[in-house]
């Protein structure tokens, strides 16, 4: 229960594109291939304190398409948000950093990834909707299993 003098605070300060790279190492020859490329997508979430009650949450995506073993294109993107989070019980902070914040940042990442791929001359790759709650719970279970194995 939050006391009246210190109400809970959760607000976004800023969303920004922290890092973006596009590589087409086998162009232009690979562009003449008729075969359908395979697509591999990796996602991640990072949280770091910036100042007292201020946190940076980064959602990263790596999209790599290949024909046989040759890369068609590789996009690496990191979308970040700065959040003010104060007077929240410690047991709820993990869920805020791992679920609530990434849900706010992720749509910006999806748009930027689709846009850069489209601007590179390819049909856009639309990242799927992500259930950050399920992803967070899965990470928590894996961490608990690792702790149990270590003992």
**Number of helical segments?**
2
What is the helix/strand order?
EEEEHH
Write out the strand line-up for the largest beta sheet, numbering strands in chain order: 1-4-3-2
Per CATH, the superfamily is SecB-like
Low-confidence stretches: none
Distance between the termini: 35 Å
CATH-scheme architecture = Roll
Q: How many E strands?
A: 4
State the domain count.
1
- The percent of residues in helical segments reads 25-40%
Overall geometric form: elongated
GO molecular function: unfolded protein binding
Organism: Acidovorax temperans
Keywords: Chaperone, Cytoplasm, Protein transport, Translocation, Transport
GO cellular component, one term: cytoplasm
Keywords:
Bacterial Protein-export protein SecB, single chain, 151 residues, alpha+beta
Structural account:
This protein is α+β, with helices and mostly antiparallel strands and 151 residues long. It has one domain: Bacterial Protein-export protein SecB (Roll). The protein contains 2 helices and 4 strands. The protein starts with 8 loop residues before the first strand and ends with a helix.
Short structural description:
The chain is an alpha+beta fold and 151 residues long. It has a single domain (9-125), classed as SecB-like (Bacterial Protein-export protein SecB, Roll), CATH 3.10.420.10. Helices cover 32% and strands 40% of the residues.
List the helices and strands and how they pair.
Elements: E1 9-23, E2 38-51, E3 54-67, E4 70-86, H1 90-119, H2 132-150
Antiparallel strand pairs: 1-4, 2-3, 3-4
């Amino acid at each position: 229960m939050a006391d009246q003098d210190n109400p809970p605070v959760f607000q976004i300060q800023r969303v920004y594109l922290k890092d973006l790279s596009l590589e087409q190492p086998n162009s232009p020859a690979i562009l003449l291939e008729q075969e359908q490329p395979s697509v591999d997508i990796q996602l991640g979430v990072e949280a770091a304190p910036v100042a007292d009650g201020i946190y940076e949450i980064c959602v990263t995506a790596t999209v790599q398409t290949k024909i046989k073993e040759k890369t068609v294109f590789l996009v690496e993107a990191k979308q970040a948000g700065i959040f003010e989070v104060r007077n929240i019980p410690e047991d709820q902070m993990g869920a805020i950093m791992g679920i609530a914040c990434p849900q706010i940042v992720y749509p910006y990442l999806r748009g930027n990834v689709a846009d850069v791929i489209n601007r590179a001359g390819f049909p856009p790759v639309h990242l799927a909707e992500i259930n950050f709650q399920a992803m967070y719970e899965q990470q928590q279970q894996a961490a608990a299993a690792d702790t149990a194995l270590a003992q």
